[in-house]
Each structure stands twice: as C-alpha cells, then as structure tokens.
Amino acid sequence: MMPATTTESIIATESAYTSGAYPKRPIALVRGVDATVWDADGREYIDCVGGQGAANLGHAHPAVVAAICEQAGRLISCPEIFYNDVRAAYLQELAAALPYTARIFLCNSGAEAIEGALKIARLHTGRTGIVAAVRAFHGRTMGALSATFEPRYREPFQPLVPGFRHVPYNKIEALDAAVDEQTAAVLLEPVQGEGGVHPAAPGYLAAAERICCERGALLIIDEVQTGFGRTGALFAIEHHGIAPALLCLAKSIAGGLAMGAIAMHESLGSLPLASHGTTFGGSPIACAAARAALHALREQDLPRQAAEKGAYLLGRLNDLPLPRVRAVRGQGLLIGLELKERVQPFLVTLMERGVLALPAGPNVLRLLPPLVITYAQLDAVVAAIAEVLA
Ligand SMILES: *Cc1c(COP(=O)(O)O)cnc(C)c1O
C-alpha cells in the first residue's frame, strides 16, 4: 500500500491508529534539507525544532545518508556478543572526542542512557540514593522518570523508583546538604532544556563534581540535549572543565538515527560481565551513522558555528522590544524566551508564519534549530518572533 499523500489523509490515517500520547500539530512533514522542512502540501518551514535535538547536523546530511546506505547494504544488525568493524572504529573515535579517557556503553535512546547510568551508579557505589534537580528532564522510563521533576509526568505512575530527591538547580548549598553516604549519584543537565532553558551557572557543575568526589558519589551529566555541538562546544562539559564519572549522550549522536551512549570515566573500570545489555546497542547501522555525524560535526566546525550563531541570535532577540517576554537566555543554539504568558498560542502563529519552534514548560519558547541553519534563516526567525510577540 502506498502511503497517503495529502495532509488531510495523512492526519486522518495517523489519528486512527496512533497511541494518542503526543500533542500533535496539524501538519505532516515529508521532507527536509539542512534547517528547512516541507509538509505534504509543499509548504516550507524553518525548522527550530531540529528533531527535538536529534537533528544538529540538519536534515538529509549527505555524509550521514551515504553512510547509512552503504552500511545498510553490508550489515545492519550485529549484537555486541560479536565484535564489529564499524563499532570498533566508532568507539575509538567517540572516546577520542571526549575530553577525558572513558569506556563506552552503546544503547538506543536518551532515557536508556540515563537508566544505564543509574544502574552503573548503584553497581559501583553499592548505594541507592540519587540527587537530581528541580525542573530536571531525563526521560520517560521508570528510572529516568524518577529523576525527572515535572509532577504531571510523574504522578500518574507512582510508585516510582525509591531513593530519588530533587534540589533547586544552580544552588551549591542545597546540593551540598543533599549528598550523603547513601547517595549513589548526582544527576544534572549542563543546560536544563525541557525545564525552561536554564544554563548551569559558572562553577556549579565543578562544585557538584567536588561534592560527589568528597562523599564517594558519582556525578552523572545528562548531555542528551546539549551534546554534539549544541551549546557551542562538542560537549557542554567543556565549558565547565569537568570530567564526570558518567556522561549520557543520545539525540544528535547518530545524525538523527536512534542511538544513545554512556561514557564511563576510566576510574570506573569495566562493567561486570552480563551486568547490562540491549539488543540493538552498538548496531553497525547506528555506528556508521554516528561515525559520519561525528566527522561532519568536526569537518564543518559545527560547535563553533553554534557558538557564533547562538550569540548572534541571542543578541538579535535581546534587541527586540518584546513586552511579552520576561527573559531571553541560552547557550549556543539552545535558546529560550520566557514569556509572561502561555507559549502554546504563539507556537501556532509562528508555524503559520513558517517557523517551527518548541515549548520548554508552559511559558518558555525554545529554539533548537539544526546547527547548519543560515544567518538569513535566523533573521527570518527573529522577524517572525518580533511579529508574533509584538
Ligand atoms: C530528550 C532528553 C532525554 C530523553 O531522551 P529520549 O531519547 O527521548 O529518551 C533525556 N535527557 C534530556 C536532557 C533530554 O533532553
């Protein structure tokens, strides 16, 4: 059966069979190039959703496309009970890209990377306490959800995993008071993304690292959204000079393909045999895409582009007279405009003007474009925001 081709028929078919879990927007995207996407009616949009963070390289990146096609014709699946040429190469290249020496566990999503890191922290410390932050988002599986703060996401699923507590973000004293001899790990994002785009204050993550080190807890840094160039460095931890025990990666790791990773600081050694695993982890097709994505990020200097374009966009937005906006903040190309009112209606009017954007909580407009977005597109985004929020 050929897929439906008009917006109306696509929406009708998908609505009849989809889970209902997602609040959907009434367009059907069918194609993308760089930071531009098209719907089934041929309408063009500037994409500031960026695959919710999975499309740092832009859509249809030729090197990623070529790597996936080539690998698909050679070997798609190969569980980690066997060695594999592409996986070996990728592990070596990702390890070399990290700012410290680490071993790597490969998985398939952000939530899965967080779950794995929580298990590793228990294994390594023999403790069960986890300290996370108010406004944190770490994913929707039971462990990751236990670390996530938003009550609307958590409450329907009680009882969650025991031992989790949340402390105010960017408050060193609160963290200091919460970490004790029961604490297996402190789990933090370098920029709280879903929670409203709040960057870590200078010194906060370094203080968290010191507190963990003093008390025998592990620091887990969630770079699922901030990794792979988003904040203006390949990894956001580079801004903070830290080397966390566990680093969680996903979203843009493989040029848009589903993949996640946990980097384990060399001081942790290897995992005990059979202590963790996943069927699709380290699949050759994901590793091939991830190799191409990492090469392209480097070759196109995308972390630097994110830093420069982010500074430009933040400057332009700060110069706008926007009485509805309380604050504009961000790091690199992860930018939030905190409104004095609910953001949802403005997402709709922006879409009508050809700009796709995200919320981050009820009143923050989040911009998460592919790092290849052009300056002309950034100017068009600023113009649309100025008009919509006037
Ligand atoms: C998206 C996100 C996750 C969850 O990743 P999934 O791949 O959706 O499971 C975890 N942490 C952060 C910071 C995220 O932005």
What's this entry about, in short?
37% of the residues lie in helices and 19% in strands. The model has no long low-confidence stretch (mean pLDDT 97).
Would you write up a description of this structure?
The protein has 390 residues and is an alpha/beta fold. It is 37% helix and 19% strand. It has 14 helices and 17 strands. The longest helix has 18 residues, at 302-319. Bound molecules: pyridoxal-5'-phosphate (PLP).
Give the SSE layout:
Blueprint (H helix, E strand, L loop, with lengths): L6 H11 L11 E5 L2 E4 L4 E4 L2 H4 L8 H11 L12 H13 L4 E6 L2 H16 L3 E5 L8 H6 L3 H4 L9 E4 L4 H7 L4 E6 L2 E2 L5 E2 L4 H12 L2 E5 L14 H4 L5 E4 L10 E6 L18 H16 L2 H18 L5 E7 L2 E6 L4 H9 L2 E2 L1 E2 L4 E4 L7 H14 L2
Parallel strand pairs: 3-15, 5-6, 5-7, 7-10, 10-11
Antiparallel strand pairs: 1-2, 2-3, 4-12, 8-9, 11-12, 13-14, 14-17, 16-17
Helix pairs in contact: 3-11, 4-11, 12-14
The structure holds pyridoxal-5'-phosphate (PLP).
The site of pyridoxal-5'-phosphate (PLP) has 15 residues, from helix 5.
